[in-house]
């Protein structure tokens, strides 16, 4: 191969994998054009996450708001499918990374995707508001479209909590950020309008306030993250809890952990008593 042909192939390969996220050469690592040695010890993990996704560093108030949303979503106990799956996987002889991947791969449209769907819904409400509707009218119109397709409204209501304890602190921080001019507040207004519409529609019935997906969707949208990244950021957040649960499970000595204890299995499935049979069976 001639020198010019070799150079052309090299350039083509370089362009094939060209990225603005990072640049690596022998002795050099740059993240968004910033040398990694300048980031280590001076930039936190949340700021680095922002940097890689957005290309710049957040202000301290933006960083604090994003961190609050990430902290709020880290865990929801072993009854959450993603956590339960990771704990079972950890007893099956796979590595810790496989157990984490098992949990993360459970985060789909129904479990873990409501934040993305809520941002999309709030975007639609905001668009109608910019076209002249007041917030309540815009929310009612968009809600009707969503509830014609499903009885579930993404980001509102919770099967476990009458009022999600994560809602109030997240919205309070968002309100403070709006007052300080850190974020605009449109997505917060859209979400609160949905809550008002739900209260009026369900007068006298159990309220359906914002849940963690709705409250974090407000924050992600206010900070300028597009809807798909609302799910991506939730995955990063929840992977922390998945890791903790998978690690705890590895220390408890169980093998082939199933969804319910052996003692409550039907009698016909519990007839074989020797532990070796339980531990070796798939």
UniProtKB/TrEMBL annotation:
A single GO molecular-function term is:
citryl-CoA lyase activity
Sorted keywords for this record are: Lyase, Transferase
**What highest taxon heads this organism's lineage?**
Bacteria
* Record bears the keyword Flavoprotein: no
Tell me the Pfam families matching this sequence: Citrate_synt
Gene3D superfamilies, alphabetically?
Answer: Citrate Synthase, domain 1, Cytochrome P450-Terp, domain 2
Q: Which CDD domains match?
A: CCL_ACL-C (cd06100)
This protein's pathway: Carbohydrate metabolism; tricarboxylic acid cycle
Could you tell me which residues belong to the region Disordered? 251-282
Is Cytoplasm a UniProt keyword of this protein? no
Q: What is its EC number?
A: 2.3.3.16
Family membership noted in the UniProt record: Belongs to the citrate synthase family.
This chain's protein is named citrate synthase (unknown stereospecificity)
| Organism the protein comes from | Streptomyces poriferorum
């Amino acid at each position: 191969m001639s020198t010019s042909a070799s150079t052309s192939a090299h350039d083509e390969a370089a362009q094939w994998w060209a990225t603005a996220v990072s640049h690596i050469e022998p002795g050099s690592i740059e993240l968004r054009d910033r040398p990694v040695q300048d980031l280590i010890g001076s930039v936190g993990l949340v700021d680095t996450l922002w940097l890689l996704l957005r290309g710049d560093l957040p202000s301290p108030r933006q960083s604090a708001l994003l961190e609050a949303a990430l902290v709020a979503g880290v865990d929801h106990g072993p009854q959450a499918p993603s956590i339960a799956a990771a704990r079972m996987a950890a007893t099956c002889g796979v590595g810790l990374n496989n157990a984490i991947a098992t949990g993360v791969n459970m985060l789909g449209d129904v479990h873990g995707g409501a934040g993305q769907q809520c941002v999309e819904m709030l975007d639609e409400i905001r668009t109608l508001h910019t076209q002249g509707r007041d917030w309540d009218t815009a929310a009612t119109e968009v809600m009707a479209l969503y509830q014609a397709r499903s009885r579930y409204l993404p980001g509102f209501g919770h099967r476990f909590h009458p009022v999600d304890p994560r809602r109030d602190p997240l919205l309070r921080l968002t309100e403070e950020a709006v007052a300080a001019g850190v974020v605009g507040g449109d997505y917060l207004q859209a979400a609160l309008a949905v809550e008002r519409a739900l209260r009026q529609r369900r007068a006298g019935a159990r309220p359906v306030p914002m849940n963690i997906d709705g409250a974090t969707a407000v924050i992600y949208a206010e900070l300028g993250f597009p809807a798909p990244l609302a799910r991506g950021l939730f995955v990063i957040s929840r992977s922390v809890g998945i890791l903790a649960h998978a690690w705890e499970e590895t220390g408890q000595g169980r093998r082939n952990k199933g969804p319910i204890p052996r003692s409550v299995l039907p009698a016909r499935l519990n007839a074989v008593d020797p532990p070796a049979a339980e531990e070796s069976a798939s």
